[in-house]
Amino acid sequence: MSTSRFLDTRFAKWLVIANAMVPAALLVWDAEHHSLGINEVNFAIKTTGLVGLTLLILSLVISPLRRLTKWNMLVAIRRNLGVIGFFYIFTHFLIFFWWDREGSITSTIDEILDREYLWFGFGALVLMVPLAVTSFDSMVSKLGPRWWKLLHRLTYVAIAAGAYHYWLQAKSDKRQPDAFGYVVIGLIAYRIIAHEWDTHRELVTAHEKLAAAKKAGPKKRAFWSGNLRLARIFQETPDVKTFRLVNPDGGALPFEHIAGQYINLKLTIDGKRVNRSYTIASSPTRNAYVEISVKKAQNGYGSKHLHETWREGQLVSVAAPAGKFFFAGHESQRIVLIAGGIGITPMMSVVRSLTDRGWTGEMYLAFSVRKRVDVVFAHELEDLQARHQNLHVLVTLTNDPEVEWSGARGQLTAEMLAAFVPSFTRGPVMMCGPGPMMNGMRKMLVGMGVPDGEITQEEFISALPVQTAPGQADPSEELPEGVMPSLAFQKSGVTADQPPELTVLEVAEEAGVTIPFECRSGICGQCKTRLISGKVKMDVQDALTPHDRATGLILACQARATRDCVFDV
Predict the structure, then answer these.
(1) What is the chain's mean pLDDT, rounded?
(2) What is the pTM of this model?
(3) 466 to each of 522, 540, 542, 558, 560, how far by Cα in Å?
(4) 221-463 sits in which CATH class?
């Protein structure tokens, strides 16, 4: 997982710094022992300039090399090479100013104005000053990833000017300056071509994604609800359990789902009907069972019930999967998954599904947790990453300072993600976690250049226990026992009776009337329907505003008629 990767990154940084400082150390040693030749100042100027230009060019080589080798850790040493290269170039100028020009500002300015090659060399140095000053993490945060990237494109201009300076000052043998010039020209050409190619690929991918989504998106299936048997309970972490549900009759599940979707549970808590939606953590390729992984929240009405009362072997009332937060693999050849805490569950479904099917695209999973003990599916992620070279995992701890941990620490930052995901200016990106984290993350990703339309996020907020709400039917107005209310769907011209165990939405589906829906838990509000006449009662009505209630809107997924009703659908 990410632990070894971060060890390698830190080691690589120090290795680069140590090796890059060797020429400086040798130069100081030779100067102390007067071994720099007849013209010591000229030798020192040439050496520092040549080493500095070499390091700066190597910093440009990182991008194509990383793209070719897929070694993402290379990006971590790019800034080190650039900063040390600037150090040598600045030293190059200081030696020229202090020893060659004897510290005279006037003499230095006159020399620069008189010699063409110094125009370009001094110009390159001036351009590099803001680049060096903004090469620290604090400046990246202040400028923002987008503006920082735009500013640092000046690196190509500065290095090109430096290479031309070197070529102009060469008197006779220009073979080495020519070689430097060809390399710089090649790197600039690569940068332009790569940018154009990436832009073209993003447009093509966007069109393909749209076409594929229309063609291969989740198909509308007949609504399924019924009982599943709780086969196994796994303790993942101290406060997270995985519940495996299977077909009570054996065999395959009676429904299909897409990785990232969720199921709805019909629970009875303290004698009250409660609906809860939980993301599916298992892969759709494993159709013999479906798993949900639930964190026991301190004030979690539903999660506490599951953790404290569910036992293996019992039957659970489940409604068919739903949700538009999914990734099937046809949409793109790369997916970036960002999870916070228990938000890892839909991401695990995606990862499990793609690895099960041998998907050839690249998967990048960034997972933020408070403590090491909170890393759900830690061992499985390690095993999957070891077996699938296209799965890349980054885990960071935001707390737990005393625990031994060689991986990343702190909140996910733009720099951390940029180092982890190559060319991170495009999606798709899927996020799931606490609301504040996702809102901040979305702003940060857009600032990095990722289009907002290519970022999707999922968040479930648990509803409160069922309570009587204003506008629901008065029990005294209900029909006599055994008499089913009649539901008339006015625009569709369909009438159907409503059995007591079905909701208005379920009756509509059986009658062939289309009512949009999403969560079936009374949370999302997709199934709002206008009640023209009649009375209904609802277990949950969280998605209804006071204005909705005042204008006669009901939630079809929750409503049960208590008298004959007419709906505007």
Answers:
(1) 85
(2) 0.55
(3) 11, 6, 10, 11, 15
(4) alpha beta
pLDDT digits (tens, 9 = 90+) for 171-184: 778 899 999 999 99
Cβ proximity of 113 and 161 under 8 Å: no
What are the structural domain ranges in the chain?
2-198, 221-463, 475-567
Q: Is 171 helix (H, G, I), strand (E, B) or coil?
A: coil
Q: What are phi and psi of 280, to 5 degrees?
A: -75, 130
Token pair for residue 538? Answer: 């609802």
Q: What letter represents residue 27's amino acid?
A: L
Q: Up-side HSE of residue 222: CA atoms within 13 Å toward CB?
A: 6
Strand boundaries in 126-253, DSSP class E: 225-237, 240-246
* Model confidence pLDDT, tens digit, residues 81-100: 989 999 999 999 999 999 98
Asked if residue 519 lies in contact with residue 526, where contact means CB atoms within 8 angstroms, the answer is yes
Neighbours of 398 (CB within 10 A): 17
Torsion angle in degrees (nearest 10) through CA of 376, 382, 387, 388: 70
Residue 211 has pLDDT above 90, yes or no: no
Top-level CATH class of 475-567? alpha beta
Sheet bearing 315-322, strands edge to edge: 272-279, 262-269, 315-322, 225-237, 240-246, 289-295
Distance CA 172, CA 314 (A): 89
pLDDT tens for each residue of 222-276: 457 789 999 999 999 999 999 999 999 998 999 888 999 888 888 888 887 777 8
The one-letter amino acid code at 257 reads: H
